[in-house]
Amino acid sequence: MREVTDSSFEADVLQSDRPVVVDFWAPWCGPCHALEPVLAQLEDRAAGSVGFAKLNVDQNPLSASRYGVLSLPTTILFDGGEPRETVVGARAATHYERAWATWLP
Question: Which one of 1.10.600.10, 2.60.40.1260, 3.40.30.10, 3.30.1490.20 gives the CATH number of domain 2-92?
Answer without folding.
Answer: 3.40.30.10
